[in-house]
Amino acid sequence: MILFEKLFILILISVILNIPFGSYRLLTRKFSLAWILSIHLPIPIIVILRTTVFDLPLWVIPITLGSAIAGQIIGSRFPHCGEGLSGYIGRPTVSGS
After folding, report:
1. CA distance 60 to 47
2. Does 71 reside within a domain?
3. What is the pLDDT of residues 50-88, one digit of tens each?
């Protein structure tokens, strides 16, 4: 694959990966641990893909960061996508007696 094909695939993966995290971010309290993780958790995955799988140079970092932000913004337009997770993450469980 040529450089721009690899870059396009990585951008697409970055956007798609960040959509559910962006929708879940809306369901959490701002600046909580879940909120911070919903923003930062996909970043190591993108870095690993960039360095090992696609072997792209350092100048693509701002491009992939922008695509991650775009995925977060797109995901924030669909808050219902993260509702399945909200019952399990960040909410205490109550056991019945």
Report:
1. 11
2. yes
3. 999 999 999 999 999 999 999 999 998 876 654 554 444
Euclidean distance between CA atoms 6 and 62, whole angstroms: 15
- What size, in residues, is the chain? 97
Reported as a single tens digit per residue, the pLDDT across 11-54 is 999 999 999 999 999 889 999 999 999 999 999 999 999 999 99
Q: Is the CA virtual torsion 56, 36, 12, 73 positive or negative?
A: negative
In this structure, what token pair is assigned to residue 42? Answer: 């996909």
Give the phi and the psi of residue 28 in degrees, each rounded to 5. Answer: -105, 160
The model carries a pTM of 0.78
Which domain range does residue 67 map to? 3-84
- How many folded domains does the chain comprise? 1
* Nearest residue to 73 via CA among 4, 9, 18, 10: 18
CB 28 within 8 A of CB 34: yes
